Amino acid sequence: MRQVRHPERDEITFIAVVAAFSDPIRVGLLRVLADGRERQWGELRAPVAKSTLSHHLRVLRDAGVTRTRQEGTRCYVELRREDLDARFPGLVDAVLHGAEGDDVGADVGVVDNASTSRPAG
């Protein structure tokens, strides 16, 4: 994986974040990452091809929603909750609340150790 650039906190824009939340898969990823845990990319489960999942993760990263780090051949992703809350207080909570109420992104989750899935959020 090439070295990726993450926007600084003050470079995160409202339009980029809202645009990143405009897709149900990305909202599902937000729901999964909202628990504050860093996730290995291979743990993430979504009803899309791996290349499409990578695209969604890149959109979230480029918008400043997530931070990605590489450790050897493994990639990890985490929600930039502190940065988002500082820039747009209450936005993440509002998106999460709306997503849960409408069940948006519920088909995105993590794969557990037994290779079965559990729902996000």
UniProtKB/TrEMBL annotation:
Residues 6-99 form the HTH arsR-type domain. SUPFAM superfamilies: Winged helix' DNA-binding domain. Residues 102-121 are annotated as: Disordered. InterPro entries: ArsR-like_HTH, HTH_ArsR_DNA-bd_dom, HTH_MetalResp_TranReg, WH-like_DNA-bd_sf, WH_DNA-bd_sf. It comes from the Bacteria. Keywords: DNA-binding, Transcription, Transcription regulation. Pfam families: HTH_20 (PF12840). This is Helix-turn-helix transcriptional regulator.
